[in-house]
Specification:
Blueprint: H1 2-17, H2 25-41, H3 46-60, H4 71-87, H5 114-127, E1 133-135, E2 145-147
Antiparallel strand pairs: 1-2
Helix pairs in contact: 1-2, 1-4, 2-3, 3-4
Length: 148
Amino acid sequence: MAFESLSDKLSKTLKKITGKGKLTESNMNDMLKEVRMSLLEADVNYQVVKDFIASIKEKAMGTEVMESLNPGQMVVKIVREELVNLLGPEDAKLILNENGITSVMMVGLQGTGKTTASAKIARFVKEKLKKKSCSLPATSFVRLRLNS
């Protein structure tokens, strides 16, 4: 959800800076403002966002654009590399308790995708790991969901 929003905002900003031969402070700030706002709206910690944006800006400022890329695509490339660096280059494995129940607690603000992420995890467990899953809400706002 947060990354879809980020992707949409980046796409809109890309249109503004295409055709430039070099990344400038001006066209870079337009794009980074959208990235910053999207991450903050996704409840990413302010200091993490600040450091993330500073890292992107440092790497991208004055970077010569590769022949096959325009400045917007170059920024997207740099943002992607930094996201991979921030989130980790390897997939995290879901470790299940072989001798019983595995509990996973989802915590976050309302509207941040906990239910969607929980459903995706339950589907993954069912389809890929061939295990049963049961999701229980700890709030009165979400109805009980049982998956088998």
